[in-house]
Structure formats: C-alpha cells, structure tokens
Amino acid sequence: MSAQAQMRAMLDQLMGTSRDGDTTRQRIKFSDDRVCKSHLLNCCPHDVLSGTRMDLGECLKVHDLALRADYEIASKEQDFFFELDAMDHLQSFIADCDRRTEVAKKRLAETQEEISAEVAAKAERVHELNEEIGKLLAKVEQLGAEGNVEESQKVMDEVEKARAKKREAEEVYRNSMPASSFQQQKLRVCEVCSAYLGLHDNDRRLADHFGGKLHLGFIEIREKLEELKRVVAEKQEKRNQERLKRREEREREEREKLRRSRSHSKNPKRSRSREHRRHRSRSMSRERKRRTRSKSREKRHRHRSRSSSRSRSRSHQRSRHSSRDRSRERSKRRSSKERLRDQDLASCDRDRSSRDRSPRDRDRKDKKRSYESANGRSEDRRSSEEREAGEI
C-alpha cells in the first residue's frame, strides 16, 4: 500500500465518510446488512489473522474504515446493538477452531505410541512449562520494543526460574520411560490456536510461537468474544429490566382503571351526582355569561336611547322657543298696527263730530263707531288666535 493510500485510510478512520464535506460519496451506510458488524467493532477474524498461516482471505461483507468511524460517532447517541451480531460471528469462528483442535488431538493419539497416564501427566507438565516460557519471552520482546528495560529484566528473571523448572520436569519425564521412546518427538496441540508444539522445542521456537501473530490473534479474538458476551448480557439484562418495568406500569394502570370502574359501578349515585354537579356548574357558567352579555347589551341600548331622547328633546325645545318668539313678534306687529288704525279712526271721528252740530246725530255716530270698533277688534282677535293655533 502506498503512502497516499495509507493517508487516505487514516483520514477515513478518523473523520468518516463525510470528511470532504460530501455526504453522498458513500453509497451505503454502516447499518446496512452488507456491512460487517465485526469490522465495525474491530474484531473481524479476517482482519486479525491476515498475513498469518491461517489467513482467511477477504471477508464476504464490506470492510471500510470510514464506516467504522461513522458508527463510532453515531453509537455515542444511539445503541445499535451490533455486539450481538459480532458475538455470533466470533462464536462460530471459535467453534470451528475448537473443532479443528479436537480433530488434531485425535490424530496425534492415533499416530503416537500409547503411554501410561503417569507418563502422560509428566509430559503435560513439560508442555505447560514450555508454554509459560514462550509467553514470558514474548512479553520480554514486547517490553524491549516499548523501551521498558526494567520490566523486561524482571520478566527475564521469571524466564530463568521457569527454565530451571522445565529442566527438572524433563529429567523426571526421561527417567519414567525408556531412552528409545524419549528420543521420539512428542507433539502437542495448542489449545488457543490449534497449532502443533513439540516437547523438545527450544526457547526460540516457543517464543516465536507464543509471541507470533497467529497465537496473539487468537488470544485477541477469544478475549474480544468474552468481552462481547459480557456486554451483550449486560444490555440484555438492562433491556429485560426496562421491559419488566414497562409491564409493571401497564399492569398498575390496568389495576387502577379496574378499581375506578368498580368504584363507579358500586356507587352509581355518587358518579351521577358528580356528573350532575359538573353539568350544573357548566350550565351556571353559561347562564352567567349570557346574563353579562344581555346586561351589557341593555346598557348600550339605554345609553343610545338616552342620547337620542336628549337630542330629540333639545331639538323640540329649540323649535318651541323659536315658534313662541315668532308668534310674539307677530302679535306685537299686529297690536301696533291696530293702535295706529284706532288712532286714525279716532281722529276721523273727531273731525266728523266737530262738523256735526246736532247732539242727536253725534250720539248716533258715536254709538255706531263704538260698535264697529268693538266688532273689528273681536274679529281681529279671533283671526290672530286662529293663526297662532295653526302655527303651534
């Protein structure tokens, strides 16, 4: 892989599919069934055992570091429960590995010479010490690569002690069987990775095996499987508790409803009275609203009628005053005209009286004038009164 491809893979792993701001670049999402869920959890055997003697080749499902980054970001807000899928995948793989281990053990039992149980136990002790020495040597190499010299020196002291125990165990095993049989290579199947181990392997061979990528890869897969089992058990327990809690809440609500229905059925009068009180309160509130509305309408109508009546009375009073003033002026004008007429008539009578010498004629004329004047005044008064009545 070139440096550019490694850089691209690193950016995908850190920033996800949308690292360039283009959300449509990725054709599928991490939740798709075609995506390997074990790869999202960084425990797919195809990735762990790549480049070893048991390389499984390319996985049938999609492996993409960008999708893993998307899953890690989304899993902080939502639980997708992909651990169950990964656990099933690893369980099937480890089951196949254990099955191969049992087959290899049967094959060794058929090909190698049968030995007694006591000798087999002594040989098993030698194998155990070889395994311990190989693990310690692998740890020493790892600490030396990390630069932790003091810890690596302490582990080397443990290696020397294990080697001394191994020499003693080999001496016991050699003394328990003939020399011809002891010189034969006794093989043993590794319980972790199902590889063959020899009883007389040197420390370098043991260190290469127990510190190799194959053995460590199987250890990683088995440890990851145990971790997934624990996580899945915790999540299932949590989910079961939530379901149980919801079920208890539903049952409590059903009991409460049943109790209320029973109480209503036992006391129908009480329920009816409650309904009656509710209906009564509602009707009373509606009646109050209607009354307030009618009162407000009556007030507005009264105010309008009062204002209209006031305006009408004012206009009527103004018309009455104006008619009175007009009648008064007319009456004044008529009275002045009558006075002038009377004065003219009086002057004419005086002239005539002076002309007439006889007293008898004078009396007749006076009576006639007085009678005419009286009739004229009465007629004028009647006409003025009729006019005033018509105007009113």
Word description of this protein:
The protein is an all-alpha fold. The protein has 12 helices and 2 strands. The chain has helices at 3-15, 37-40, 45-48, 65-74, 83-111, 117-146, 149-175, 179-183, 203-210, 213-266, 268-355, 359-391; strands spanning 187-189, 196-198. The chain has a two-stranded antiparallel sheet. Helix 6 packs antiparallel against helix 7 and helix 6 (117-146) packs across helix 9. The model has no long low-confidence stretch (mean pLDDT 77). Residues 235-392 are annotated as: Disordered. Pfam families: LUC7. Interacts with SCNM1. It is found in: Nucleus speckle; Nucleus, Nucleoplasm.
Low confidence ranges: none
Read across the widest sheet, the strand sequence of neighbours is 1-2
Specify Rg, calculated over alpha carbons.
65 Å
**Main sheet record:** 2 strands, antiparallel
State the shape.
Answer: rod-shaped
Structural class computed from helices and strand pairing: mainly alpha
In DSSP terms (H or I, runs of 4 or more residues), the helix count works out at 12
**N to C succession of SSEs:** HHHHHHHHEEHHHH
State the separation between the terminal residues, measured CA to CA: 125 Å
Strand content: under 5%
Q: Could you give the count of β-strands? A: 2
Helix/strand layout:
Layout: H1 3-15, H2 37-40, H3 45-48, H4 65-74, H5 83-111, H6 117-146, H7 149-175, H8 179-183, E1 187-189, E2 196-198, H9 203-210, H10 213-266, H11 268-355, H12 359-391
Antiparallel strand pairs: 1-2
Provide tags for this entry.
mainly alpha; mRNA processing; coiled coil; mRNA splicing; Luc7-rel; 12 helices; single chain; 392 residues; mRNA binding
